[in-house]
Amino acid sequence: MAPIIAISGLSKTYASGFQALKNIDLEIRRGEIFALLGPNGAGKTTLISVICGIVNASAGTVTADGHDIVRDYRAARSKIGLVPQELTTDAFETVWATVSFSRGLFGKRPDPGHIETVLKSLSLWDKKDSKLRTLSGGMKRRVLIAKALSHEPQILFLDEPTAGVDVELRRDMWQIVRRLRDSGVTIILTTHYIAEAEEMADRIGVINKGEIVLVEEKAVLMRKLGKKQLTLHLPRPLTAIPAALAAYRLELSADGCKLTYSYDTQDGETDIAALLHDLTASGIPFRDLHTDESSLEDIFVSLVRRQ
Q: What is the pLDDT of residues 202-217, one digit of tens each?
């Protein structure tokens, strides 16, 4: 199946000489949730802005559902909905009016039934006659999503969709995103909350200093780059790790009460059984043990530091 977004050789250099994007090649699959991660200034918002036609690229091509974003701008942009970071709304308009107006901007005929469906799906129906200035920050963010969905796009960009909202509302937003994906909308998500990407994304892309560092299936990424750690709690402090255990590259805690063994999650076999045997042979008992696995945040930080 052809990708719904295809990016080839994309670069952006601003008049100041700053190169925000460097020769990016990327394909987004139809119907997936794709999380784009990167530190501040990595190029996430610039990349989205180029795809949405807000910023002109210096080089390269982008197609949205088969339409070139430059040569066939109107057709390409009609396929895209964008929810920006900033809460930019007309404070004195009602929810119904602002969402309906947004549909008209894309040349779509009025469709009260569709607007009603969108508002109800976002739990905004009881607020349809409320002025935007009376809404909470979380509700305003839902209105931005409703505006982006008003013209029935096939692609939805969510740029930091849960920034500044509480944990409960964030989880509500996750459910909304999943329902949109299930309805056939392709979601591209940028977020500072890496737990958000870990929870929802099908694939993860990491961008840093304007370059795509990695694109991978989430499960494969966690398996490939994740590390597991076995921590052994000792009944009495250990002053040093015996030379006989040097091959395991154990780490001893500052208080001498914990030994940590790190191993690769890709390895089908580990040396845990041998380690436990050798600990006993070295006269080192333990009273408890537990394992930890790298989170997506650990992997992300490691990738960015490595670059």
A: 998 988 889 998 888 8
Contact (CB, 8 A) for 151 and 108: yes
Enter the CATH code of domain 227-306: 3.30.70
Q: What pLDDT score was predicted for residue 294?
A: 57
Gap between the Cα atoms of 119 and 117, Å rounded: 6
| Positions of CATH 3.30.70 in the chain | 227-306
CB atoms within 10 A of CB 275: 19
The CATH class for the domain spanning 5-222 reads alpha beta
Ordered alpha helix ranges (H), the chain: 44-51, 73-78, 95-105, 112-121, 137-149, 167-182, 194-200, 218-225, 272-281, 296-306
Pairing of the two strands 59-64 and 5-13: antiparallel
In the sheet that holds 251-252, the strands lie side by side as: 251-252, 258-264, 227-233, 288-293
| Positions of CATH 3.40.50.300 in the chain | 5-222
Q: Is the pLDDT of residue 165 over 70?
A: no
Tokens read off for 262? 């790190």
Tokens of 130: 């409320």
